[in-house]
Amino acid sequence: MSATITPVDAPGPDTAPTPAARLRRFARPGAALLSGFLLYLSFPPRPLWWLALPAFGLLGWTLGGRRLRAGFGLGYLAGLGFLLPLLVWTGEEVGAGPWLALAAVEALFVAAAGLGIAAVSRLPWWPFFAAGVWILAEGARARVPFGGFPWGKVAFGQADGLFLPLAAVGGTPVLGFAVALCGFGLYEACRRLRAHRATGTVPRGPLAAAALAVLLPVTGALAALPLVDDSAEDGTATVAAVQGNVPRLGLDFNSQRRAVLDNHVARTRELARAVKEGREPQPDFVLWPENSSDIDPYANADAADVIDGAVKAIGVPTVIGAVVTPETGKLRNTLIQWDPERGPVATYDKRHVQPFGEYIPMRSFVRIFNSNVDRVSRDFGAGTEVGVFDLAGTKVGLATCYEAAFDWAVRDTVTHGARLISVPSNNATFGRSEMTYQQLAMSRVRAVEHSRSVVVPVTSGVSAIIRPDGEIVSQTKMFTPDVLVEKVPLRSSQTPATRLGTLPEGLLAALAAAGLGWAGARAVRARRTPAA
Fold first, then answer.
1. Based on the structure, what is the number of domains in the chain?
2. What are the pLDDT digits (tens) for 2-37?
3. CA–CA separation, 516 vs 519, rounded Å?
4. What CA–CA distance (Å, rounded) separates 157 from 27?
5. Tell me: the pLDDT tens digits for 342-361?
6. Theoretical Cys-Cys bridge with 185: which of 27, 158, 214, 414, CB 3.0 to 4.6 Å?
7. Does 17 fall in a domain?
8. Backbone torsions φ then ψ of 455, nearest 5 degrees
9. With the CA atoms of 35, 437, 252 and 382 taken in that order, what torsion angle do they form, in degrees rounded to the nearest 10?
10. 102 shares its domain with 244
C-alpha cells in the first residue's frame, strides 16, 4: 500500500486564489477598457490628440498573444470604453436606451478588430498588420449596417495632431493608420527594450520593425506638410455664416412655428444693415444652417416671403436649409439656393439621411424598445445628386451635417468642382453635449484632406469658418445668435487624397487581409505539425 504525501505549504484544490492572482485576472480586461477610454479622451473638445498613441500601445499589450476568443472579448471591452462616453450625446433627448444600443452594436466592430489584432500579434512586423486590421474594421463600420456609422474614426480625433497632414495623402484611412501604427510601434519598442534589459540581446528584425512603425508615420507626416497649403489659388471669397439660434433645446427646437426661420431672417437683416453702415464687408454669398427654415417655403407663402425679403436685403445668393414636405412621398432635407432677383434657383437633397433620426428602419420592431421612434412620423428620403452650387461665381460643395462623417460625401463635391465646402448642420437636438465639437473636428480634417476652406453654419453652435490648413479663423459660441464674416482662400487643385479616393483604404484593407491570411496559415501548419 502506498500513500501520497502532500507538502504542508502546497495549495490544495479548494484553496482560494490570492489577491494578487485575482488582480492579474482582471489586468487585461481593465487595460482594454482603459485603452478605449484613453482613445475617447483624445477626441475634441479636449486637445489631447496624443493620448491616442498610449491608447493603441495599451491595446497592443492587451491583445498581444491572446487567443481569438479572448481577443474578441477584450476588443469589445475596448470598444465600450471608447464608444460609450464618445456617443453619450445620442441619448441627450431620447434616453439611455438608444445610446446604449448604438454603442453596444458599434463596439462589435472594435471587437472584430481585437480578434484580428490578436491573430496577427504573433507575426513578424505585426504592428503594420494590426494597424491595417483596425482600419479594415473602421471601413466596415463606415458602411454597415444602414449605410454605416463612421463617427469615432481615429482620424477625427487628430485635427490638432502631428499626423494631420497625412489626411491630404490618403484621407482618413491613412491618417488613422498612421496613429494606430505609431501606437502599436511604441508598445513593441518598449517590449523589445524590456526584453533587452532581461536578456542582454535584442533580435534585430523585431527591433527594426518597431522602430520603423514609429518613424514611418512621423516622417510621413513631416514629409506631407507641403500638401497643407492655404494659399488662394483662385482668389478669395467673402462668406457669411448665419447662426440664428433656436427658441428651445431638444427635439422640440422647432415646435414654435417659424421661430427658427425668423431668427435667421433677423440675423441676416442685421448683417445687411451692418454692411450698409460699413461695419461689415459685403459678403459674396451667405450660408444658413440645415433646418434654418423650420417650415417648408414651397408650401408656406409666409415663409417664402420672409426668406425672400432677407435675401433681397443682403443682396447676394443665400443657401437656405429647409425640410421640404411634398404632398406624397418622403420628406426631403433640402438646401435651397435663393437668388435675390430670381428666388429659389437650385436645390440639394441630403443624400445620406440618418437612420433612427431622419428615418426609422424596422419601425415596428424598434418601437418595442423606444416609443420616441414615432416622433419621426414621416421618413425622410435620400437625394441622388451631388451638391455643388454656383454662388456668385464660386462653386460651393455641400455636405449636410451627418454627411461630413462619410468620406465619399465630401470628396464627391470636390471632384465635381467645388472650390469651397459648406457643412450646414443642426445640432439643437443634442443640447450642450460634445457632439458639435466632434463634428467640427471632422470639418477641420476634411479641410486638410481636400485642401479647401470649409464653412460650418449651425443653427445653435458651434458655427465656424476653417481655412484649408484646418485652422479655425472664427467661430461662434453655443446657443448664441451670431454671424461670421470672413475672406477665405479658394482652391481648385486636388490633393492626392482627393485624386486617389478609396484606393489607400483598399490597400490598407489588403494589408490586413494578408496579415490575417498569414496568421491563419501559420495556425493551420501548427495544428498539422506533430508534437516532438
1. 2
2. 444 444 444 455 566 777 677 778 899 999 999 999
3. 5
4. 27
5. 999 999 999 999 998 888 88
6. 214
7. no
8. -110, 130
9. -90
10. no
